[in-house]
Amino acid sequence: MANDKFDKIKLELRRGILVLAVLQSLQQPHYGYSLRKQLNEAGLDIDEGTLYPLIRRLAEQGLLESEWQQAEQRKRRYYQLSDEGRSVLQLLITEWQQLNTTLQALMETSHESH
Q1: 3-state secondary structure at position 91
Q2: Confidence of residue 114 (pLDDT cuts 50, 70, 90)
Q3: What is the pLDDT of residues 3-34, one digit of tens each?
Q4: DSSP 28
Q5: Which of 38, 40, 90, 109 has its CA 20 to 30 A from that of 21?
Q6: Apex CA 29: angle with CA 83 and CA 58, to 5°?
């Protein structure tokens, strides 16, 4: 039972960082599979059922640009950050760093009190 609870909490935590990870990765153009492969190789396993809706949502929000390109004898839709996406990414990185610093301080304080 404890593993079920942990898995659910871990999933919530991962969802919170997926947007940041995808935006960070899309500073360079990627099509869906190449993006998924890059994230997996970096240690962030993400399935297609999560990635593709996220990409579509980010594009609808104006954070990504896309274009069809011919590659390896097939057309692929490549995504990359828009100007607005770059601005949002920088804000998210700053927010992530602040949260990480705060969390690290809390963990150190908690560790010292035990």
Answers
A1: helix
A2: low
A3: 889 989 988 888 889 999 999 999 999 999 99
A4: S
A5: 109
A6: 55
